[in-house]
Write a structure and sequence with these properties.
With about 160 residues, the chain is an alpha/beta fold. The protein has four helices and six strands; from the N terminus they run E-H-E-H-E-H-E-H-E-E. The chain has one domain: 3-Layer(aba) Sandwich (Rossmann fold).
Length: about 160
């Protein structure tokens, strides 16, 4: 299974509650550029899992609008992938998807969760450098993953 783990695009710094922060114009551009990159990286995505926070949902919306990659018609929004989400629960869910034959998964989330998830999947800390809009690609066989690459937008 290939897992694409993306940190949301750049977001405004202030909102009444963290979950309500929106993308900046720069964050929208980052998401669009990553959609173009995803077109080259994968011809289809079987599952999309997105944090319910505004900035993550907006990132996915702009990414999906700018990619030619086939995306599922529905996305899963999940509290377990919010900033302090549960990487163990996410790995268990990904294990089930892998057993079910799912080939490509995109997760749009936040720091520190994205770093925690990469570490859990690869069983060791990885030096991804998750700046906003970064996508890490992992080849994972249900037990241990291999970190393939990290894509940082050039915006």
């Amino acid at each position: 299974m290939r897992i694409f783990i993306m940190r949301h695009g750049e977001a405004e710094t202030m909102a009444k509650i963290d979950a309500d922060r929106n993308l900046t114009a720069h964050g929208i551009q980052q998401a669009r550029e990553q959609g173009e990159w995803l077109t080259e990286a994968a011809n289809h995505i079987d599952r999309v899992i997105v944090s319910p926070y505004n900035r993550a949902l907006q990132t996915y919306e702009h990414l999906a609008a700018s990619t030619a990659t086939n995306m599922p018609s529905e996305i899963e929004t999940w509290e377990a992938v919010t900033p302090y989400g549960n990487s163990t629960m996410a790995v268990d869910y990904l294990s089930n998807l892998c057993r079910d034959g799912v080939k490509n998964v995109l997760i749009v989330s936040h720091l520190p969760f994205v770093e925690d998830l990469v570490t859990a999947l690869c069983e060791s800390p990885q030096q991804v450098g998750f700046s906003t809009g970064t996508i890490a690609e992992i080849e994972w066989q249900g037990e241990q993953g291999e970190f393939i690459c990290s894509n940082r937008p050039e915006v």
